[in-house]
Predict the structure.
Amino acid sequence: MRTRFMTGLIAAGMMVLGAASAGAATSVDINIGKTKGISCGTGKRIVEGKGYINVRARDCNGEIYVYTGLRYGKNWWIEVRRRDGKIIDTMRR
C-alpha cells in the first residue's frame, strides 16, 4: 500500500513539473524589437575593450554615446551606438 502511495505521489509530481515546464516553453516575449540598448557603463567597457585607456563618458543621452579616451598616446573621441554597442566613429582630438 505504501509503495503505491509513493508511486502515485511521484507520478503526480512529475505531471505537475511537466506542465510547469511546458507552460514556460510556450511563453512569448512581447517586447521584441523594443530594447533600450546598452547602458552608458557598458559602452565604456566596450571602448576599453578596444584598447582605449582613461575612458570617460561625455554624453550618454540619445542614440549615440560619446566617450573620450587615450590610445597610442593620442586623445580620441569615440562614438558608440546605444542600440547594439557598435563603435560607429572615432576622431582624434
